[in-house]
Amino acid sequence: LSLLAVSHRNALLSxxxxxxxxxxxxxxxxxxxxxxxxxxxxxxxxxxxxxNTLAGRISEQNFSKDRPVLAAVxxxxxxxxxxxxxxxxxxxxxxxxxxxxxxxxxRDDAAWGILPTSMLEEQSxxxxxxxxxxxxxxxxxxxxxxxxxxxxxxxxxxxxxxTMDVCLTLIKLLSGKKFLAGNFAEVCExxxxxVQRHPPFVEQxxxxxxxxxxxxxxxxxxxxxVCLCADFFFPxxxxxxxxxxxxTRFWELVTAGLMAADPLARKRTIHLLRRVLASIEAxxxxxxxxxxxGGLMTWDHAHAAEWRALWADHHLVCETLDxxxxxLVLQIVPHVQRMLVRGTAVSxxxxxxxxxxxxxxxxxxxRVQRIGLLVFLxxxxxxxxxQAIGVSFCCCDLVRTLNNAFLFSPxxxxxxxxxxxxxxxxxxxxxxxxxxxxAAGPAAIAVILAAIARDVEQFIPSYFVLEMLAHxxxxxxxxxxxxxSSSLSDASLEHLRILLRNSSNTxxxxxxxxAQIMCLRFMQNHxxxxxxxxxxxxIASLMHTLALCNIPANAIPTDxxxxxCTAWFSALxxxxxxxxxxxxx
Length: 585
Fold this sequence. Notes:
2 strands
């Protein structure tokens, strides 16, 4: 047959149209597949026609009585699947359709061997995320759900391992495909039934959930699977090394769920968080105090009532932020203020507070964004609070939110004469924040300056940011050498020039001059001679920045600026020592 496939392939293919035994036709077809030459259009039609005829013959057979037919089909599928020639690739879909027809016709337990999980995995790669998919792609996955329902009900728990493997494979394949959401829900129910019959399966389910949680499009399906099996994932006892509550991937899943754009995903995550908290409280009742997630979740049984009240505030705030009515959202401000209090025996990890603040900063109502900013900027800053908040939050979420001119109402020209609550809040917060960081303050100033130059583009916010930077007091707790190695540099001057250019993109001369004055004040407060002598800054970059400040002479105290410039220049070019005066005659 192999020789015929090369020299007389047409004659070999003619065997497919003859009423020959199925085993002979299968061998002829496999010999054609193994030929390196691709099939012509006519030959492909002939082979596909044979496969469709074969599917009809199988649907007429009873698998329980005619096992050779089933065996021949299985061999054909597996061998076709293993081949890599171009002709085999073209025909795999037709063979897969044939197998689907076989299972649809009989729902036989033994027929499940026709669809190995490797074939399902490969075939699913061609299934798009939309509903525009061919029947041959979707049919086997839909069919697999129906066959599995029967298998799970009839098999004993000791023989269910293979069925669980197939279910979890289908979970991976169906996740993220919205038009197959019904099939995904069916398989999840089958997984729950398997776990109920054999609880040790829960570890395999968790590993599958972490796999599909890694994709943004499939993360919601992972949350649904974990919620469905929550009774087994979060019992009122510690599960040891395999406990999801000690797995960082679980807390990443919860974090992503609370920040998801889909309201259903957020509600599902809040429900999941409530289940986890109930289990942790039950564990703390016997152990006194417990910590999960590397400190993200702490519970002390001695203060159980306070913990319950604090988390109730958190859940209430999360649910209320889904509302679009501003007057409803504003009622949660006292709850947010309570959660921002640090240093007490019962206080949430700032991670959970930051999630709420991010939701407020990105709310569709500008007034809610403004209230959220003012509430956060009014936080009492202590070294402990500054350490909990961290530079990262101030450089990412807070700075991105500032790039909105409507937050600084009324008009910027009026606010320059009479500072607004937002500008005063920024000045107060950042001054206290950087002072509380101690020796890390200068380095943090450089980081936040870079973040502001990157994320703040509108000219009105740029002015107020420059004003905030100008009023930050320089930290004198570190030596000049430490300041040079960890704070401002030529890159920082470039970031300052970006803010100056952003502020100059306005027709208001008042804003332009005021922004340039704030830039000079920042340079006077934070740039010393040691920045030049150490090589952290160059005199060219410094002069380039000063050249952008075209300020009238009567607008700034020229004596202070001249004194500062003299100090910079003297650090690079010290004046020679004056000669001793000649003795009087």
